[in-house]
Amino acid sequence: MLPIDPTKKISFTRHICDGDLVIVYERHDNMKAVKVCQGSVLQNRFGVFKHSDWIGKPFGSKVFSNKNGFVYLLAPTPELWTLVLSHRTQILYIADISFVIMYLEIVPGCMVLESGTGSGSLTTSLARAVAPTGHVYTFDFHEQRAASAREDFEKTGLSSLVTVGVRDIQGEGFPDEFSGLADSVFLDLPQPWLAIPSAGKMLKPDGVLCSFSPCIEQVQRACDSLRSNFTDIKTFEILLRTYEVREVKMDYSQGDEAKPGSILPCKRPQRAIEGGNEQDKLSSQTVMARPCSEAKGHTGYLTFARLKCLS
Amino acid sequence: MSQNDSQSDSIQNPRVTWEGCSVLLDINDGDRLVFARLSAGSTLKIGNKTYSLQPLIGCPFGSLFQVENGDQGHCLARFVPTVEGNNIQEKGDFESQDEIKDNRALVDNNKAQSLTGEEINAMRSQGATGDEIVEALIANSATFEKKTLFSQEKYRLKKQKKYAPKVLLRRPFARSICEAYFKKYPARIGFLRVDALSLLLSMANVTANSDVLVVDMVGGLLTGAVAERLGGTGYVCSTYLGSTPYSIDIVRIFNLSNEICKRIVRSSLADLSLSQNGTSEQIHQQGDDINMECLSNNQMSSSVGTEEITPTENERSDLISETTVSPVNKTGKSTKAGNKASKQAIDLWKENGFSSLIIAAPELDLWSLLKDLLPLLANSAPFAIYHQYLQPLATCMHNLQLGKMAIGLQISEPWLREYQVLPSRTHPCMQMSAFGGYILSGIKICSSS
């Protein structure tokens, strides 16, 4: 997924090979990760796609099924991976992820600790940020979940950047071997306040911690325990509003008939964009945008804090 | 100095300041933010006094400094807080005592403080520390005891800011630089809020070894942020229309190593777009011209730089100002970021395509720009376009859809709210930024032709 090996980097000359991980794109809300395998096929509502047809095509190609249905084959990125990974837990999405990476001040070469691993959505972006020389140590107390995450990182080619450990961080804290070595720590735990003292031990002075919690009570307790060793304690909520764009026909003819003073918004949503029936000279096509009617109203609170510099 | 130790420890991520290092000074808990370059001669003005920044050299980032009355007058000295900190201690106290006290007996008649200005000045000249003055003010306040614990703390903080200012030494990162500019000079960074910037970097899959094409008309903030994520690998190529590159002055505030600076290059769009069979001589000549302009532009910008960022007049809460930088220091400053892209690099990009594209160009016509830039991207490459207005992005999205040039198209607008979290007093902050910009993101696909 990452150009750790520069020969795997996407380019005009890089083509899909046997064994590559591709993201099969049907629609923006329907994608799937597929490992390309010479003799294999992909079957979906558009028909049967032979992997052998994909090999040798550039990433970003449109490929056809036996029934002439089509999908696009994309190179995987952490953003696409977040949309296709199998949910073993609730996951973090792009807005929270981006903000966490930026606020934790993660740059290439950093050492980052994370708990829990969950489905590995954030971990994938953490790995991208610390590459090529840094490392992410991520812990989950659920043995199978950790194993599945490990398999995923193998699949996405991030194993050299991520180590998954099985450990109850709330109960035992992070392993002592990381004391004073972490540039940043990320906690997504039900009782983060239990892990905060250990996180403080792991961080370098001035290192940044982030705790993600869906409930304000968790935030409250986490902040109480942060106050002794941390400064710059800040809590945020970040959401994304998305927009839909349409070409609409604006009808101006009414303006002539209507009495002056009664200027009404005369927008008529057009059923078919490509319909192009020229009925009226007094109308024109305009591209307009409006917020989508549905959105995530809450994901979680992000609390950041910086380890006090005491030495 | 300790520079080498700290840098060999972690090249990308030094944790101790050095001479010539760029720092962010946070005065009194974010009341004022100042970018400065540390040198023996650089100074900082707080109130009506000027302090040397010399004592900050060699200190760990995150250190706190306080004004002290030394032998040679006032100076900044390292202040190590206790582990427990001076935060409000016992939550229990609050709930019990708090309920009894309220403000019914407080009358605002300016008579509560019995200490006069002359008396305070006298204390000062006798060498009293700021903290001692604050204590004296509290002792002489007739109303302090009647205040609730919260307002007592507020009072103490207010007096402390005035009589015992604290300076916090911060590492300038994309995050802090963006926040500081957004607070004070949002127009200079095209109103790009930190959450929008972080989304741009994610959406364009910026990572080590990638070749990122940017159109940065936000002062270099974008270029610097991308370079920070590349860590001295790959390239960030800042392209421009016409013959004069856009200013990337803000890049200088980042503490980017020489290795990272070398990875920041500029190239005109004409050079990037020239078909490969254009005569090499042509390319060369044009290149030399641009190189000249590039250099002169650099020189100009470095001489203008310090003033440009200094706030007009002495504003009360000036957030960003660059302290006086000794010229010696500046010339000693390492590799320049933003050299002209080499011909080999350009040829390589023509052959392979860029790995991703980010545009933050509030002043250009987006669609015509994007039409020229998209062919330079490798297939399946993600792109992210920032704009503070929705319409240009909507038009772009519509045209990309019609032209079947990209998929996964989405316009998003981040919404960011900060919370005050205190025992029994948690709520969203009263003031928030209502707008952080719009982003159009998508993935380039192979053209059907």
Automatic annotation (TrEMBL), chain A:
<feature type="binding site">
    <location>
        <position position="188"/>
    </location>
    <ligand>
        <name>S-adenosyl-L-methionine</name>
    </ligand>
</feature>
<dbReference type="GO" id="GO:0031515">
    <property type="term" value="C:tRNA (m1A) methyltransferase complex"/>
</dbReference>
<keyword id="KW-0808">Transferase</keyword>
<dbReference type="GO" id="GO:0160107">
    <property type="term" value="F:tRNA (adenine(58)-N1)-methyltransferase activity"/>
</dbReference>
<keyword id="KW-0489">Methyltransferase</keyword>
<feature type="domain" description="tRNA (adenine(58)-N(1))-methyltransferase catalytic subunit TRM61 C-terminal">
    <location>
        <begin position="69"/>
        <end position="306"/>
    </location>
</feature>
<keyword id="KW-0539">Nucleus</keyword>
<dbReference type="Pfam" id="PF08704">
    <property type="entry name" value="GCD14"/>
</dbReference>
<feature type="binding site">
    <location>
        <position position="168"/>
    </location>
    <ligand>
        <name>S-adenosyl-L-methionine</name>
    </ligand>
</feature>
<dbReference type="GO" id="GO:0030488">
    <property type="term" value="P:tRNA methylation"/>
</dbReference>
<keyword id="KW-0819">tRNA processing</keyword>
<dbReference type="InterPro" id="IPR029063">
    <property type="entry name" value="SAM-dependent_MTases_sf"/>
</dbReference>
<protein>
    <recommendedName>
        <fullName>tRNA (adenine(58)-N(1))-methyltransferase</fullName>
        <ecNumber>2.1.1.220</ecNumber>
    </recommendedName>
</protein>
<feature type="binding site">
    <location>
        <position position="140"/>
    </location>
    <ligand>
        <name>S-adenosyl-L-methionine</name>
    </ligand>
</feature>
<feature type="binding site">
    <location>
        <begin position="119"/>
        <end position="122"/>
    </location>
    <ligand>
        <name>S-adenosyl-L-methionine</name>
    </ligand>
</feature>
<keyword id="KW-0949">S-adenosyl-L-methionine</keyword>
<dbReference type="InterPro" id="IPR014816">
    <property type="entry name" value="tRNA_MeTrfase_Gcd14"/>
</dbReference>
<comment type="similarity">
    <text>Belongs to the class I-like SAM-binding methyltransferase superfamily. TRM61 family.</text>
</comment>
<dbReference type="GO" id="GO:0005634">
    <property type="term" value="C:nucleus"/>
</dbReference>
<dbReference type="InterPro" id="IPR049470">
    <property type="entry name" value="TRM61_C"/>
</dbReference>
TrEMBL record, chain B:
<dbReference type="GO" id="GO:0005634">
    <property type="term" value="C:nucleus"/>
</dbReference>
<dbReference type="GO" id="GO:0031515">
    <property type="term" value="C:tRNA (m1A) methyltransferase complex"/>
</dbReference>
<comment type="function">
    <text>Substrate-binding subunit of tRNA (adenine-N1-)-methyltransferase, which catalyzes the formation of N1-methyladenine at position 58 (m1A58) in initiator methionyl-tRNA.</text>
</comment>
<comment type="similarity">
    <text>Belongs to the TRM6/GCD10 family.</text>
</comment>
<dbReference type="InterPro" id="IPR017423">
    <property type="entry name" value="TRM6"/>
</dbReference>
<feature type="compositionally biased region" description="Polar residues">
    <location>
        <begin position="301"/>
        <end position="312"/>
    </location>
</feature>
<keyword id="KW-0539">Nucleus</keyword>
<protein>
    <recommendedName>
        <fullName>tRNA (adenine(58)-N(1))-methyltransferase non-catalytic subunit TRM6</fullName>
    </recommendedName>
</protein>
<feature type="region of interest" description="Disordered">
    <location>
        <begin position="301"/>
        <end position="321"/>
    </location>
</feature>
<keyword id="KW-0819">tRNA processing</keyword>
<dbReference type="GO" id="GO:0030488">
    <property type="term" value="P:tRNA methylation"/>
</dbReference>
<comment type="subunit">
    <text>Heterotetramer.</text>
</comment>
<dbReference type="Pfam" id="PF04189">
    <property type="entry name" value="Gcd10p"/>
</dbReference>
